[in-house]
Amino acid sequence: MDGCDGAAERFEQHRGRLRAVAHRMLGSPAEADDAVQETWLRLDRTGAEGIGNLGAWLTTVVSRVCLDMLRSRAARREEPARDVPLPDGDGPEDEVLLLDSVGRALLVVLDRLGPAERVAFVLHDLFSVPFDEIAPVVGRTPATTKKLASRARHKVHGSPVVPEADLARQRDVVDAFLAASRDGDLEGLLAVLAPDVVRRADPAALPPGVPAEVRGANAVVRETAVLGRRARHAQTALVDGAVGVVVAPRGRLLLVLVPTVVDGRIAAYEVIADPGRLAALDLAVLDPVRGAA
């Protein structure tokens, strides 16, 4: 019993890191908890006495568990449900903290990586695990694993199609739009929207009876159907090489906003919700990813 209690105590010292690794790999706090629990069960069966570096051993095991879950998900070709009503909040407090620390845009982009790419990228770029330790997890050589992570890194960062200065100006405008939307700041919205702004949206993004196109700043500001409370689930991202917005409750992609910025104001924006159109978009993060090399 003492040995079991000792193993459990040592495991608890690593639980936070294991859950962080699993959440970034799986994008779901509930699935991350399942992966951590399975890791504990494997440790309990194996025993901790003969394990020299318990932290590395646990990271390897949780990574293999996550890889199996990702491969199973890919085999089932799961798609996030898009017709589920949005929650009033993000969910439990710890889930909100995880989303804030990871970033919704990063989770959306990670969902587009292959299972082995995602594991290699998360372990190396986000948790600084050496490639020779990642290689056995993904069943590749260290050199091939390094290529996997490099390919994933390129997808995560994307390729801007506008100069860096223009990208920064676009982002300032879109960030101001999101901030005003979240706060219900009508004057802030009018300040950032062009007077003749046009909002277009896929029918899937709108409640019944809401027109697919709205013209004029006052009309756009008055309507709350497109963003409304969804603004709290939004984050700027790179969309087809320019600044856009992903709306991702609990890290699951629901909508993408594609704005057109002219002379420091949003002249138009399109809300994309059709699954086929969403899948065709090239999405990447705007912020540098910690640890990328």
TrEMBL record:
Domain RNA polymerase sigma-70 region: 11-74
InterPro entries: ECF_Sigma-70_Domain, NTF2-like_dom_sf, RNA_pol_sigma-70_dom, RNA_pol_sigma70_r2, RNA_pol_sigma70_r4_t2, RNA_pol_sigma_r2, RNA_pol_sigma_r3/r4-like, WH-like_DNA-bd_sf
Domain RNA polymerase sigma factor 70 region 4 type: from-to ranges: 105-155
Residues making up the signal peptide according to the UniProt record: none
Keyword match Transcription: yes
Keywords, alphabetical: Sigma factor, Transcription, Transcription regulation
UniProt keyword Transcription regulation present: yes
NCBIfam families listed in its UniProt record: sigma70-ECF
SUBUNIT field: Interacts transiently with the RNA polymerase catalytic core formed by RpoA, RpoB, RpoC and RpoZ (2 alpha, 1 beta, 1 beta' and 1 omega subunit) to form the RNA polymerase holoenzyme that can initiate transcription.
Family indicated by similarity: Belongs to the sigma-70 factor family. ECF subfamily.
Designated name of the protein: Sigma-70 family RNA polymerase sigma factor
Species for this entry: Streptomyces luteireticuli
Lineage: Bacteria, Bacillati, Actinomycetota, Actinomycetes, Kitasatosporales
